[in-house]
């Protein structure tokens, strides 16, 4: 409880202990005003880029670019605003595991959608070769 | 520190603040802090899964009917969406500063930052109200309630496309659940301001401020993805 930088906190904390500035994974890190301001500024710039990019047509890449920028913004918010950078490992694992399992859900949805009809030659009937959109819009009344 | 489980621990507070009494089932204020925080991170994980299901639905139906989604998205007002993005980012910033002030026992600064956060959240809901009333007036409603007036610009834009109501079902569900979270966040921030006025939060005990802060940043996090997906449909 002797750290100068945390004197204000340590003088009346209930055993939060001594934390060095660079290796603080206690969940009690105090960020500087400038760091938060910098993150906010970066988030604004990235929002402007998001809008600007949407004005151009990059085909299928528009979605990838938009989601990549959103992911950068999200990681800034998580690591700095939510203090994950300085949080305990168990808290980070608890939260990030939800994102891991969510990406599994997304992965299998995309794998299903994009490979329908071309995985098994035995099942290569007309309906199985159709993408879902064609399948639902097809006139199955039969003529 | 803990000679018996009936001993209550009181955390000394800086001048002018109320000392915090650790709940009887915790050995120390640090254990109390870390337990509450882990519990809250687990709650936030379930929030990710709640919105994740809706994002999964979005991915699937966007793949099925990309044109309906692109044309539907053009009927949303992206300027209002961008304004709401800036409001939420700013509120996330002031919330982070509010937590910082609580950690440094700076009461009046914390109250100020929380108040600005509250105002930004209120501004967000006002913009949402303007948007929602426009959508209701034009029949751009979810699922069964979706109805375009024949001959209107909306019917012109969407009439020839398959299932244009799907986009608006997702728009209303995703922004609706998100907006509900904003309202809950406003109640929680107001609650923090009451506690702050009663001098409850200081360097020795700021856990409620920290946890509401995490919740508020998650609300911002979800919106970061909703804005490009709904207002600038790629």
- What CATH architecture of chain B would you give? Up-down Bundle
Mean pLDDT of chain B equals: 93
Number of helices of chain A: 6
CATH superfamily of chain B: Cytochrome c oxidase, subunit III, four-helix bundle
Widest beta sheet: strand line-up of chain B: 1-2
For the biggest sheet of chain B, the summary is: 2 strands, antiparallel
Overall, the morphology of chain A is: elongated
In short:
The complex is a heterodimer of chains A (143) and B (234). Chain A is built from six helices and no strands.
Key words describing this protein structure:
heterodimer, A: 143 residues, mainly alpha, 6 helices, elongated, disordered N terminus, B: 234 residues, Four Helix Bundle (Hemerythrin (Met), subunit A), two-stranded antiparallel sheet, 2 strands, 71% helix, 2% strand
Give a description of the structure.
The complex is a heterodimer of chains A (143) and B (234). Helices cover 59% and strands 0% of the residues of chain A. Chain A is built from 6 helices and no strands. Chain A is elongated. Chain B has one domain (42-231): Cytochrome c oxidase, subunit III, four-helix bundle (Four Helix Bundle (Hemerythrin (Met), subunit A), Up-down Bundle). With 234 residues, chain B is mainly alpha-helical. The longest helix of chain B is centred in the N-terminal third of the chain and has 36 residues, at 29-64. At the A-B interface, helix 2, helix 3, helix 4 and helix 6 of A face helix 1, helix 3 and helix 7 of B.
Which helices and strands, and how do they pair?
The complex is a heterodimer of chains A (143) and B (234).
Chain A: H1 7-10, H2 33-54, H3 61-81, H4 89-115, H5 126-129, H6 132-137
Chain B: E1 10-11, E2 20-21, H1 29-64, H2 66-74, H3 78-103, H4 107-137, H5 153-158, H6 164-197, H7 207-231
Antiparallel strand pairs in B: 1-2
Helix pairs in contact in B: 1-2, 1-6, 1-7, 2-6, 3-4, 3-7, 4-6, 6-7
């Amino acid at each position: 409880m002797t750290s100068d930088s945390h004197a204000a906190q340590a003088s009346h904390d209930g055993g939060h202990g001594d934390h060095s500035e660079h290796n603080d994974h206690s969940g009690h890190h105090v960020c500087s005003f400038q760091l938060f301001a910098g993150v906010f500024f970066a988030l604004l710039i990235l929002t402007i880029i998001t809008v600007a990019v949407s004005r151009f047509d990059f085909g299928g890449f528009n979605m990838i670019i938009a989601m990549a920028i959103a992911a950068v913004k999200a990681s800034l918010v998580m690591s700095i605003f939510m203090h994950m950078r300085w949080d305990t490992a168990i808290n980070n694992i608890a939260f990030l595991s939800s994102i891991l399992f969510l990406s599994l859900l997304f992965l299998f949805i995309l794998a299903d959608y994009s490979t329908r009809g071309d995985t098994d030659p035995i099942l290569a009937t007309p309906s199985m070769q159709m993408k879902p959109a064609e399948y639902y819009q097809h006139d199955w009344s039969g003529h | 520190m803990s000679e018996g489980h009936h001993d209550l621990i009181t955390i000394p507070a800086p001048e002018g603040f109320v000392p915090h009494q650790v709940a009887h089932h915790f050995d120390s204020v640090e254990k109390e802090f870390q337990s509450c925080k882990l519990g809250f991170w687990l709650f936030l994980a379930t929030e990710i899964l709640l919105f994740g299901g809706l994002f999964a639905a979005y991915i699937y139906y966007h793949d099925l009917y990309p044109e309906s989604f692109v044309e539907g998205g053009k009927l949303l007002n992206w300027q209002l969406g961008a304004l709401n993005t800036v409001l939420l980012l700013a509120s996330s910033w002031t919330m982070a500063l509010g937590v910082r002030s609580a950690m440094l026992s700076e009461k009046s600064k914390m109250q100020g930052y929380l108040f600005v956060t509250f105002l930004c959240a209120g501004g967000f809901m006002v913009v949402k109200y303007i948007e929602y009333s426009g959508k209701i007036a034009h029949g751009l409603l979810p699922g069964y309630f979706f109805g375009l007036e024949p001959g209107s610009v909306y019917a012109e834009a969407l009439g020839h496309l398959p299932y244009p109501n799907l986009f608006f079902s997702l728009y209303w569900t995703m922004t609706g659940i998100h907006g509900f979270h904003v309202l809950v966040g406003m109640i929680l921030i107001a609650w923090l301001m009451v506690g702050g006025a009663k001098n409850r939060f200081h360097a020795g005990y700021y856990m409620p401020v920290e946890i509401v802060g995490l919740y508020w940043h998650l609300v911002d996090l979800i919106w970061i993805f909703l804005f490009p997906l709904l207002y600038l449909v790629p």
